[in-house]
Amino acid sequence: MEEDKAYGYWMHNLPGIGDRTIEKLLKIYGSAREVYAAWENDKGNSPEKVLGKDKAEKIKEFSKNWDVEKKYEQLTKTGIAFYSLEDKAYPKKLRELTHPPYGLYCMGNLPGEGVPAAAVIGARECSEYGRYMAKAFAGKLAGAGVSIVSGMARGIDGIGQKAALESGGKTYAVLGSGVDVIYPLCNQKLYHEILEKGGGILSVFPPGTKPAKNYFPERNRIVAGLCDVLLVVEARIKSGTWITVDMALEQGKNVYAVPGRLTDRLSDGCNLLIRQGAGIALSPSDIMAELAVLLGRKGEMGQEKNPKPSYYKGAGKKRRNFRSDVSADDGAGGEKMAGEDRKETEGADAALLSCLDYYPASADEILERMRKNGKQMEMAVLLPRLMELCMEGKAKQTGSTYFAKTQQAVPVN
Amino acid sequence: MFSAVLSGTVCGIEGCLVQVEVDLSQGLPCFVMVGSLGGEVKESGERVRVALKNMGIALPPMHVSVNLSPADLKKAGTGFDLPIAMGVLAAMEKLPQTATEGMLVLGELGLNGEIRPVKGVLPIAAGALKAGIQRCIVPKENAKEAAVAGLKTAGVMDLKQVIDYLRLLEKERDAALPPEKVDFSQYIEERERARPGADFSEIIGQESVKRAALIGAAGFHHLLIKGPPGGGKTMIAKRIPSILPELSLKENLEVSSIYSVAGKLPKGSCLLKERPFLSPHHTISPQALSGGGKIPRPGIITLAHRGVLFLDELPEFKRQTLDLLRQPLEERTIQIDRSGGSFTFPADLMLVGAMNPCPCGYYPDKNRCRCTPFEIHNYLSHISGPILDRIDICVDAPQIGIGQLQAGQKGESSEAMRKKVMTARGLQEKRYQGTRIRFNSELPAGEIEKYCGLGRKENDMLKELFTAFHFSARAYHKLLKVARTIADLEESDLVLRKHLQEAACYQIKDLTGRCGDGGR
Q: Which of A11, A195, A309, B448 maximizes the CB count within 10 A of its CB?
């Protein structure tokens, strides 16, 4: 078995040979080992005939410098596992794709079979709102035992995965580079944390591959392939996120979008998705209900973390229980949030906190809002009070005199 | 025949006296000038010869030698024309030898005998006064400068007038050409009249920036304003001189002499009306900013002495240019060493920087800004850390909405703000009496704790603040200084919780941009 893998690894690294050609070769020869043997002993079905003379020569040249066993040993020594289509461990979800990738490299663990997985994706340059929503959704989903699959990109992807780790869940990152190439560099810490906490780094590109623009669509296809539900948190009209969405739809996956304000360009993509029929993600429980239906395993789901997960109460009868669902679950759903606000902010700061938003507002704007609410105050009074809120963790300062509400003002559990 | 006339030149921004000696002797007729002369001084001989000729006085066919003493001092400027002419006339015995005794003479000559203004009269006159000189003859346009320095001044228009004046006896002179008078009450009146230029009340909204400007002015803290284009950053910066205290006479003389050297005093006036406000374009060369030249001359930062230096589009300035500001911002002077000499110029200025938060300018507004963290980081890293370290207050100037503009809520006027600044300055003056410190911003690290004493509660709060905001040790001192100023503005002896909080708000935080969720 291990030896077969070594041949698979050889085949996946052949120059000028893509997944399609590999498919063709496998059809003819049966396995990677046989393909390798075809170059050694010609049985009438010579590779020259299949691939053409030039390519076959090239591969011969390449194979001379490739010691199959040694190379594979080197690979496993670096902690990278290789899974080919011929392996049993190859993720089932990928196998179901129209053109499954032949090879998959993995550091850490593969996503567990049968464990529900949600992809949380979105814009790299996200807003405070997107940041918050990604945290809230991914954190809650992961806490309930859903694995979070994403691309470890800047912005929504990384934030979602980080939140998943923080809430003790598992997350898997699919890279557009080799699994040993950390990109983007700013997520270096996240990369190591994913590995430490039992998640996995996956890629279809051989180790050492530098990220390139044309690799990302393939990466996105794998993200879409590995998830059961795709959640778009924030996207512009023109965005790489659309590739993932298209792939997911092609694969018959359900797509959910977090709605945003009509005036926010960063939410345009999500709002458009909703118009086109995507699910509306009002709270993490929406996604969890969807997952429960999909997997049809109400009892099993989420057992790792939470023996009686809140989300599956409404599973299957979502529509009927919709209203009670929202009030019972304190997710990122609108009604509940407002309720929490009221409770959390009793006292002198209530008025001030109600003038804050998840979108950063300048101190002047806040002053203006206070004035409109009939609470005129001086800048010299407002700033210390805002800073007080920051120290309490209820607000945060972005830039010098911009302030936004934080999650702590509305606990997400 | 030998004669000597007293004149002067500018060394750096100070006046030095120069003795102009003229001798006529037998020999080949020629006009020889010696004594480390700059180009414009060497040409002086020709101007003098022709001007005298056109007055009807021909030079005798003799060997004319002119020496400017001290001979090793580099002489520059056109002010030597008139003293050389006087020296020649005295040597020719057209004027009595004692006619210019104890008198400073300055002026440029035209070929028709007209006397034209020169630069640096104020510092030269002040230097002469120190050396015990009482009277002077200067061009009419410069007369006020010499008078304000304290000399008995005759302002003259042409050569003929000078000759007539000098032929009079000492006691008759004042009647013929009354000495120039400077009326300070008139100056103050003029200043009042000049006031309604730019006022803070014209600025709509931007309360936080105005507040920051007020604090900056009260403690002479350097200020950085970030914001999208069109938010009013420049408007606010231009109005900062209007809330700084009026220049005192001593300060004004100091600043005006710098302007006199640069030839930038307003025409016909001897003193500045307002604190200097300079906003050089970002293409400015390092030398123009710092001052320089073979014989060092003051640059923009020296012209901004006791005033405001406004650097718009801060990241667009060349890094090398900005880094020049390190020493002046720290020591409030700049030392320039060139082959022509070493000078220390004053540069006690309030730096006001303005910048966009990202290359496109709209950063926190994600609807318009699509800059990547990398681009933002690159943009901001044009400003070096040491410069940012010296900036005490950083504030955002957000976009102004149409609603706010139409509502047209007028803000506090400059007059009211200046009153607050004066109160805070008064308190600082009292507190730092007998020390070299003048403003809170000048507090050295070692003495901060002495003057910004905190109670136990405040100390605990400060600890909390630091952990909440990940401040550096340097930020600690800046924060305390700014908090001290805020307390002064409220006439509070103690630095309280709210003062510290507000000061913390103005600290520069994570200007290096954020990547992923790396920022808070």
A: A11
